[in-house]
Amino acid sequence: MNRSVFEGSNVIITGGLGFIGSNLARKLVELKANVMLLDSLIPEYGGNLFNIAGIEDSVRVNISDVRDEHSMRYLVQGQKYLFNLAGQTSHMDSMADPYTDLEINCRSQISILEACRKYNPDIKVIFASTRQIYGKPDSLPVSENHLLRRVDVNGINKIAGEWYRVLYNNVFGINGCSLRLTNTYGPRMRVKDARQTFLGIWIRLIAQGKPFEVWEGQQLRDFTYVDDAVDALLLAASCDQSNGQVLNLGGDSVVSLKELAELLVEINGSGEFTVQSYPADRKRIDIGDYYSDFSRIRATLGWEPRVSLREGLARSLEYYKEHLQHYV
Ligand SMILES: NC(=O)c1ccc[n+]([C@@H]2O[C@H](COP(=O)([O-])OP(=O)(O)OC[C@H]3O[C@@H](n4cnc5c(N)ncnc54)[C@H](O)[C@@H]3O)[C@@H](O)[C@H]2O)c1
Questions:
Q1: What is the pLDDT of residue 251?
Q2: pLDDT per residue as tens digits for the range 203-212
Q3: Ligand 1 centroid, distance to 84 Cα (angstroms)
Q4: Which atom of ligand 1 is nearest to the CA of 190?
Q5: Ligand 1 in contact with 40 (CB < 6 A)?
Q6: Which residue from 178, 238, 227 is spatially nearest to 6, judged by alpha carbons?
Q7: At residue 50, does pLDDT exceed 80?
Q8: Which of 53, 176, 255, 285 is the most exposed place for a label (fewest CB within 10 A)?
Q9: CA distance 153 to 98
Q10: Mean pLDDT to the nearest integer, 188-215
């Protein structure tokens, strides 16, 4: 990756106070970019001011909402890169309140791209999509050619957001791409509840010395450590080969959720979990097994995960043992 492209460049991150956005911001500060973070800090989502502890004087923070077209129109101006990470991420919340998910994950995506088209067509926009859009896989590993068979409202709106991104690249020449993230984890993820990821609540409970629940446990998953996800975002921004593409991320290994729970307990040196059946409302939108084929991004951008699951879990546990009070 040509990291020097970020030096002195203006970069805006929507969802910049969230889990992935704040880790990306840290890296960009290290690369000497001029970083602006836009975030609504809606309490149910993953935004947290503590996520920028230590870099708060090196970034600009704008507390606003991607649904506000007037703010977006102004904020995209003068930016070289836009990492578009703001999102409603809870699958269950999207079923309980489909309209909010529609507004944030679908409608706002058009208004962001429209703001770019009218006020800064030279910007490059990287969109954070999700493996959730594949739904229940027909076959494994899942490549980008797999049918999109989403099982929840969030998945449908993320598809729309992703394809607006591709369309504005292909038709209007607003450069950029969409990365389909799989389960991403690491320091600064939301651990207050399971809205962002079940792994968050597991890590919180184990750090508090409390038992956690594994539902069923046989489901297979892959996991990307957040630093690897950040590398993929930076690579995608810095390489022209990414333009117009949709690219899967993936993990270094495939584990069942029960194996994951056992690994977490082993790394922690103690801990307990119980295996329970799925709650009925979650079972309805369960996708079974998933792991991704990320050969396209490896071939296109040379990306692959570098941090092993064991190492990533150890780093995450260490972080939350030290900073849990800021996340509960
Ligand atoms: N973490 C994962 O495992 C994962 C997997 C697949 C895709 N993604 C995608 O990556 C992106 C970032 O996810 P994350 O895990 O960092 O979640 P996160 O909740 O920590 O970050 C999202 C941020 O967006 C902000 N936000 C939400 N709605 C907003 C709005 N209307 N206006 C401005 N800001 C708003 C939130 O306050 C939050 O800080 C999301 O788009 C998500 O769909 C994440």
A1: 97
A2: 999 999 999 9
A3: 9
A4: 20
A5: yes
A6: 238
A7: yes
A8: 53
A9: 6
A10: 93
Distance CA 288, CA 279 (A): 14
Angle ∠(17,20,22) on CA atoms, nearest 5: 35
- What per-residue confidence (pLDDT) applies to 11? 98
187 lines ligand 1 (CB under 6 A): no
Q: CA 195 from chain center: how many Å?
A: 13
310: burial class by Cβ within 10 Å (0-12, 13-18, 19+)? middle
Q: HSE on the CB side for 56, CA within 13 Å?
A: 7
Q: Does 128 sit in the ligand 1 pocket, CB within 6 Å?
A: yes
> For residue 130, what pLDDT is reported?
95
Out of 13, 20, 44, mutate this one to test ligand 1's pocket (max ligand atoms within 8 Å of CB): namely: 20
Ligand 1 atom, smallest distance to 189 CA: 20
The rounded Å distance from CA 299 to ligand 1 centre is 27
Residues 6+ apart with CB under 8 A from 322: none
42 lines ligand 1 (CB under 6 A): yes
Q: What is the pLDDT of residues 233-281, one digit of tens each?
A: 999 999 999 999 999 999 999 999 999 999 999 999 999 999 999 888 8
Q: Is the pLDDT of residue 284 over 90?
A: no
C-beta of residue 106 within 8 angstroms of C-beta of residue 159: no
